[in-house]
Amino acid sequence: MKPHSLRYTLIFAALAVLTLLGGGIWFLSGHSPAVWTAYAPKEAKSPADLPQQQIVQSALPEITPPPVSEALSQRVVEYHMDVQLLADTETLTASETMTWTHPGKKPVQELYFHLYPNAFASGNTTFMKESGGTLRGDSMPAGGYGSLTLTDLRTSEGVSLMQRTQYVQPDDGNTNDKTLLKVHLPQPVNGGESVTLKLQFEVKLPKIFARMGTADNFVMAGQWFPKLSVYEPAGTRGVKEEGWNLHQYHGTSEFYSDFGIYNVTISVPSDYKVAATGFPVKNARLVQDRKIYQFYADDVHDFAWAASPDFVVAEKAFSAPQVPGVKIKLYLDPLHKDLQERYFQAAEAALTAFSKWYGPYPYSTLSIVVPPESGNGAGGMEYPTLITAFGAAEATPSTSLERTVIHEIGHQYFYGMVASNEFEEAWLDESFTSYAEDRLMEQEYGVATSLPLQSSLVSSSQPLNLETWKYSGDDAYTRNVYIRGKLVLRDIERLAGTKNMDAILAAYVRKYRFKHPSTADFQKIVEKVTKQSWQTYFDQYVYSGGAPDFAVDDIRLTAKRGSGDGAGIQYDAVVKVSNQGSHYGDVPVKFTFSDGYTVQQYWNGEGKTTSFELSYKAPLVSAEIDPEHSILLESKHLNNFRMAELEHSTLSRWTLSATTLLETLLGTLVW
Q1: Which residues sit opposite 92 in a β-bridge?
Q2: Where in this chain does the record put each Peptidase M1 membrane alanine aminopeptidase domain (predicted)?
């Protein structure tokens, strides 16, 4: 997800330029076409031989599943869903048949479902209390509450489980939060066995401010259905004991789920157009005053859809060396109907580059939804094979249009295929995607990111593998997960070399494609490619909130007359520098003398302090640590620069030069 707040935060970050100057800056230095085979899904095992009760029929007819392709993932879950949009009441009514195949070994007698729409049920839910009803600059409209009501839950034999359910709150104990539901089964499910449950539910859609809901006649159905939690076998993400990974929906958290198969029928008013995860099994058909769509997707871990009568739809077939064939579909707000080519070009650039860098895009479709301005809270979000751009607020947007599309398509890899736990290790999605986004924006559009400027925004460094709700506020979450994590990756690139970094990321994606990796898994790849230990580095900058903090503490000058006839004055200087933060080696220090001569030396970073001794024919004017701000993990630059005490006339000339530099530099800050 692209953090909307960064767009505004970076404007204020221009103030950091003055800090940098005060610190001595002298210059701005599914699937591709394949052989389809008939495949019969493994028959789900009933949880018990129990007395038969009356079976409640689904509200909509059962779906005949289409054939499926060769599996790319473990396909732990399988969903068959029918959903109807009742536009007048902004309600979804749906039935769901869910089959789960136990991936572990120990018997399991409880299943856990995420009921994400319940985050918007009242002002007392965990999400609303933590977010304050605001996300990425968008606030909940008056009367905007919504929720999910489970109306029926049964085994495949028709045994009701409604009295076997319980809302749980493992993170904060907030009894007003109903985003996680435990279901106690009649009998255990053993490892390798399957269980099938049938659910019926209704969703009162909230007003859009946080990803899902309605805005006028636009609907974004993201995280809209009861979705099974992830059961992690031992070894997954380094866990020692197998079990459920359970978290509520928090103000800063996103999602985590298992790969599987989705077969979904969507019924909407006849004038509505639908965009969805996966591909249409057949053309939409009209039944009285309704339009019926059917979509299918496999090897994905979520299913989202959007609908509006106002969509301007465009399609384009695209292929590239690592992209055998993808149909790109645009669902544009009318304000952006003339911007089709910009969206297509950004999508093609992203698919081409990311498939080259991180492996082939494996799906046959990619849908881009552009919400109306009133639905901007649903914008800038990723779902498997479907992304949302920001809401259409202007007819000729800046390259933020391309940047958002590229960022969200990047999530098809870091989140989509490399499906890490966004509750606990969000940086594995957002930081990695932001890293790829920056690289492609510069390559394709010539738009370079001011990394030192972004570094100055990270005022509070915190561990990157922190559970999202444990950051000290949403601002700290954003600046660490989106910015600092990206800077750590850039720093690894600086230390290991660009060629090695390319190999690291390619190997990481290749190994953990359609799996659930952890930060430790990424560290192992870094060490394997570079053939050296990175434990100290990860301990300082990833597993903790380490940051270097360099300072020029003191400059002492002495003058003496040289020996011999005609010898001039010799100036000696002793410069004391320190690092009050985390260890960092190979630190450049620049020394400037009054006649304009400069010299750069390096500190190996050992110890907290060191001194440099210099002798020259002209007095030392200043010392500056990391003059080009290449050490991106330092955010405090004010104390990196120090001027020596000079005679008044020399100091005046130096101040005039610095003033001229300041005026020149500020003249280049065109945003």
Answers
A1: 85, 203
A2: 348-541
Residues 526 and 631 in one domain: no
Task: Determine which one of 296, 361, 435, 482 is catalytic.
Answer: 482
| 183 and 287 part of one domain | yes
Residues 111, 235 within the same domain = yes
Query: Which domain, by its residues, includes 504?
Result: 437-542
Residue type, 538: F
- pLDDT tens by residue, 47-72: 333 333 333 333 443 444 555 568 99
Distance CA 539, CA 545 (A): 9
**Is residue 430 marked as binding?**
yes
> Angle at the Cα of 259 (from 117 to 33), degrees rounded to 5?
120
Q: Domain total for the chain?
A: 3
> What are the CA-CA distances from residue 6 to residues 76, 187, 477, 531, 546 (Å)?
36, 49, 12, 36, 22
- Please state the separation of Cα 411 from the chain's center in Å: 7
Helix (H, G, I), strand (E, B) or coil at 381: strand
Model confidence pLDDT, tens digit, residues 535-581: 999 999 999 999 999 999 999 999 987 666 656 889 999 999 999 99
Q: Are residues 573 and 456 in the same domain?
A: no
Name the residue type at position 571. Y
394 catalytic? Reply is: no
Same domain, yes or no: 471 and 568: no
CA distance linking residue 531 with residue 525, whole number of Å: 10
Is 583 annotated as contributing to ligand binding? no
Do the domain assignments include residue 318? no
Catalytic residue from among 382, 408, 624, 634: 408
Does 250 carry a binding-site annotation?
A: no
Place of tokens 């870094």: 526
- Same domain? For 274 and 183 the reply is yes
